[in-house]
Design brief:
By secondary structure, the protein is mostly helical. It contains 5 helices and no strands. It is rod-shaped. The two termini are 49 Å apart.
């Protein structure tokens, strides 16, 4: 399954389950049918947030941002040469090296 489709499915299922927990007899199909009729009653920012979950471009930006964060926060391994140079510098400063 395409990762974007799986992402949408997970988000949609989560929202539906949360609404079912909060509202007795909640039915997503009935709710979806009512939305167009009551559009003016829905907060614009909330509607934008909800529709953003199905927007591939926003999903792509989210994944790129997450990847950048992972790369930026992942410790980098030192080469053996760099580690040896650091050890020599610390020893010259009389700093004990484990």
């Amino acid at each position: 399954m395409d990762i974007f489709q799986k992402y949408k499915e997970v988000i949609e299922n989560y929202i539906e389950e949360m609404l079912k927990e909060m509202i007795a007899d909640f039915n997503m199909e009935d709710y979806a049918a009512l939305l167009p009729e009551r559009k003016e009653e829905i907060d614009d920012q909330l509607l934008e947030l909800l529709t953003s979950f199905t927007d591939f471009t926003i999903f792509k930006e989210l994944m790129i941002s997450f990847r950048k964060m992972v790369i930026a926060t992942t410790p980098k391994h030192k080469s053996a040469k760099v580690a040896e140079l650091e050890k020599e510098m610390l020893e010259k400063q009389n700093i004990e090296v484990p």
